[in-house]
Amino acid sequence: MLLSVTNELVVRRADPALRRHIRGYWGYASELPGRARQREPLSTGVVMILGLGPRLGLADRADLAQPAAWFGSFVAGLNDACAVIEHKGQMRGVQVDLSPLATRMIFRESMCSLAREVVALEHLLGREGRVLEERLMELGTWEERFDLVQAMLAAKLQAADPPPPDVDWAWRRLAASRGRLRVAELATELGCSRKHLAARFREHVGLPPKLVARMLRFRHASDCLLGASSSSLSELAATCGYYDQAHLDRDFRDFAQTTPTAYLAEQVTFVQDASPAVS
Predict the structure, then answer these.
(1) What torsion, rounded to 10 degrees, do the Cα atoms 76, 81, 87, 91 define?
(2) Which of 9, 15, 51, 267 has the lowest tally of Cβ within 10 angstroms?
(3) What is the fold, at CATH topology level, of the domain defined by 165-265?
(4) pTM value?
């Protein structure tokens, strides 16, 4: 177990007008005695990291024995595997949780090109990304940093064309059900084929709707597991819409490469271990 850990975490929700696009802002700083790796919860959106300290390593999810790729500020597209991050004792930055639809509006990129990819922010925003990093480092408080990031994102969202109404509705309907809505039912409600719906999701969300539904359901289950809201794994499976515990175990293997018990035993992420100050 690592000793002498210093953690700082400040969380702020996006302004009400932006909450359909931006889930929140996380200001974090962590100091540990040495190099470490940690598994992150499965993200059901797009994560933007604005680095304010040493570069952050992202392990190859297919082969954790390979050296990590190191980034300053970056955008991580929708991915059906938990990220494994690596750092050399220090982490400091701002995390922004974006919906896939908002990400397409902000960066004007097809989401299928960002799915399962990590892209340096400079490659998406050019000089604007470098200037944003510099300005964030000059500011003295998390609140000032959140204000700056939110103003930039709000301007880009306002200037962008909105997502197609059918995709917007389908994404929100699936997210609201926490993945329990069957894709066939979703297609029927939209009056389209499952093939058409899958094509729309690949362009605007990044992954097919059936996989996204599994991810949403798994994330809900893993959050419930960490929150100890169920007394047993079989109860957890039933509560979250799984046919049985075996299907829950399968999703833990597929998405987190571990078992529910091992997942719970890990100090999964700095964000979850710290006690956040909510601004």
Answers:
(1) 50
(2) 15
(3) Arc Repressor Mutant, subunit A (1.10.10)
(4) 0.89
